[in-house]
Amino acid sequence: FAEKIDENANQVIMKLMGLGVMAGLNDQIEFEQAELVALEFNKEIAKEVKLDEIEIQEKDLDFEDDEKDLQTRPPVVSVMGHVDHGKTSILDAIRDTQFASGEAGGITQHIGASTVKINDKEIVFLDTPGHEAFTQMRMRGAQSTDIAILVVAGDDGVMPQTIEAINHAKAAEIPIIVAINKMDKEESDPNRVKQELTEYGLVSEDWGGDTIMVEVSARTGDGIKDLLEMVLLVAEMRELKANPNRAAVGIIIEAQLDKARGSVATVLVQKGTLHDKDYVVTGSSSGRIRAMFNSKGEPISEAGPSMPAQILGLSDVAEAGDKIFAVEDEKTARAYADRAKEQKREERLIQKSNTNLEDMYEGI
Ligand code: GTP
Ligand code: MG
Predict the structure, then answer these.
(1) Whose CA is nearest to atom 10 of ligand 1?
(2) CA 114–ligand 2 middle distance (angstroms)
(3) Which atom of ligand 1 is closest in space to residue 108's alpha carbon?
(4) What is the pTM of this model?
(5) Residue 231: other Cβ atoms inside 10 A
(6) Distance (Å, whole) CA 347 – CA 131
(7) Is the Cα torsion angle 51, 56, 57, 58 positive or negative in sign?
(8) Is the CB of residue 85 below 6 angstroms from any atom belonging to ligand 1?
(9) N or C of the chain: less Cβ packing under 10 Å?
């Protein structure tokens, strides 16, 4: 101990005697005694945590729930489609907000989560960008949701990102509800849209297929109520359930570094309930939740299954698409994060040595 705090061993023994502890050079002392002695030398000590002794893996945190613990949860719906086809406008019509007109260049550049209550039933929406640059975000949008609303402008028809969105939804194995938008426009032709969609395996119910298609106008609000009813119907058929009474598991929807607030992350809770002050870990970032907000920016103390929450308190910027887990204590969080960091480092090293090999071969 004397060596560790860089003090003379005799001095340490003297201090211990002062505390009424008779100890020789090779005797064990208690941590609390060592702490007091260190203080006498104006030093602070902390218990060494052996992180590698904590064996914690994803499967321990993301375990399966018992059927009897499952309860109905709200549907999470991603709104997808080609740029400018009216995704944000449809959400504005649903929420009675005006987000679309406030966006830079009229383009959505992030995934926004919002919660809406319809006939006492909650629906969580993820707005996704339609611009071709945001493929990753659309893919994550589809992967973290239960249902996709595919927005197709009636005056423009099926476009490249319409097709991309169909593919993401198919890959994620979630049902697609088509919203044929801009029906207030003279040029809009829903039959043309339906015709084009058949090429991608989406055949409207009135054409003998099994895809729900609703004609809407975000501008006038026509059809929006029908669209919501269809969402609730499809959600009910899916019997979406989760156990709210367990440590939370979620997915990072978005993350950034905020000048004033530090690392900020939007989490979509998938299982369990996330609480303010929970210890959490995501990838190589960990921490204790310092504050939590709902999709309206209001402070909240907990978020249950399907609910989006913005959280503050992570050590680093989280990575969108990563899972996030609530854990018992700080030690567990740090052990998990440290292991993830170590894994990342190893992956980088392997990558580097592969590149070196390639260089070598190129030289031959
Ligand atoms: P990205 O997020 O950039 O992919 O676009 P978006 O799909 O969210 O489209 P947004 O809601 O921003 O709408 C694009 C433009 O279409 C805006 O100028 C809207 O006012 C207009 N728009 C949206 N819905 C309707 C509609 O039902 N009728 C008419 N006439 N215009 C609409
Ligand atoms: Mg948008």
Answers:
(1) 86
(2) 13
(3) 2
(4) 0.81
(5) 26
(6) 32
(7) negative
(8) yes
(9) C
Tell me if 181 CB under 6 Å of ligand 1. Answer: yes
- Beta-bridge partner residues of 153: 181
Instruction: Match 């709104």 to its residue by tokens.
Output: 79
239-247 mean pLDDT: 96
Our answer on whether the CB atom of 276 is closer than 6 Å to any ligand 1 atom is no
pLDDT in tens, 155-184: 999 999 999 999 999 999 999 999 999 999
pLDDT at residue 112, rounded to an integer: 81
Q: Which residues pair with 258 in a beta bridge?
A: 262
Atom of ligand 1 nearest to the CA of 82: 4
Tally Cβ neighbours within 10 Å of residue 239. 8
Residues whose CB is less than 8 angstroms from the CB of residue 226 and which lie 6 or more positions away in sequence, other chains included: 214, 216
Q: Decide whether any atom of ligand 1 lies within 6 Å of the 188 Cβ.
A: no
Please tell me the residue having the least CA distance from ligand 1 atom 3.
107
Phi then psi dihedrals of residue 69, to 5 deg: -90, -5
The reply to whether ligand 1 has any atom less than 6 angstroms from the CB of 107 is yes
Q: What band does 31 get if pLDDT is binned at 50, 70 and 90? A: confident
Q: Token digits for 114? A: 């919002």
